[in-house]
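Risk register update: the risk of archive-format incompatibility is retired. Evidence:
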Amino acid sequence: MKKFWKWAAGIVVVLAIGFGFYHTFIGNHQENNSSKTITIGSYGPDTEVWEHIAKLPETKKAGLNLKVQDFSDGVSLNKATLNGEVDVNAFQMYGYLKYFNNESKNGKLAPLGTTYLEPMGIYSKRYKSVKDLPKGATIAISSNPANTSRSLKLLQSAGLIKLKGKPNGGLYKPENVADNHKDLKFQEVDDHTGPRLLNDKNVAAVVIGNTMALQSHLNVKHDSIYHEKMDQSTKNNINVLATNEKNKNNPQYKKLVKLYHSKAAQDYINKKFKGTKIDVDKPVSYLEN
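Archived output:
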């Protein structure tokens, strides 16, 4: 009997050790393999931001493995997010997301949270103030529908024009200009073309979004003659992290919002972009109300 019990006890010990080995090594290996890599799509300077965040110790501590994929334009990036090629995208303002959803026939995107406001600015190499712009001057604005509307609202804020009514879809067009006391002419151009027109003698000023301004080595705080301010009128211009609507409550994706606003990320962003990306940490309800 003593031999039997010694034999039985030995089996129990072996099984216990075996179970412990499985749980520690095999179990953890399976758990690591099951952790999904989150693909973040972006373009322009935002790609650099997320490549930096992907390497932060805070990201590892949050249990996230991030892969950053660079795109050349927003439309293809939003489509890639809808079809699952990209899990989350980081590039667009809330107003553009709403416009895309309104036009999309293949699903909708939803904001996970806010990131920043990049002030759009009015730039000129010939005039130092919007008051100096002459009558009949040509102003280059974006041909992108969301940015066309944003450009016109900026010109209104600067006191150059007045807009009428609430247009369909919430986006203004040049025909919505009700008061144009300087008889300004509007030249709609591709976003990438705008900065190059600063050297065009036929263009008095150019409205440029901050992504394009940064790529052209322009600082909106120092180089523009007028730029947006952070208030209720510009909340549609706040950038967001977006995902397929069906994934909007994914807890792993929501961690990305906190990571963006972490001190480590913000220290890098402020140094890299010299304060031109204004941190906006607001709930999604702020945008929707």
